[in-house]
User: What shape does this take?
Amino acid sequence: MLGLLIRAAGEEAALLIIENWPGVRVFIPKTSKVGQKLSTIIGLEPAKALSAEFGGMTIKAPLARSWRCRVYFERGWTNPQIARTIGVSDNSVVRILASLGLSRSRAAMPLQITVPAVGSNCLVPAE
Assistant: This one.
């Protein structure tokens, strides 16, 4: 189903569908119009493309955790951000990324620093 969604409406629209209805059945109207929930969330043109392909049908949005993990990784998200979003542990994100041939080297990861309280003279790494 993921491939069909991407082919019909594009990667960004597929991601929005999965983020809004993960693992849930979604009715695709025969004709998409402004103001409908689907067109409001993914945009009118991608909704029209879905209507052309699946109009009048109910589709089940996939969870697509591995694919979403890759997409978020490529967008620069941290492992904890990815884990919270796709509903898995940090360790699962590491395993998924490894299975996709992706990894984060410590040298490549940007250091995140929070600003210390006034009067303090040390920097504290962000969590």
User: Anything to note?
Assistant: The chain is about 50% helix and 10% strand.
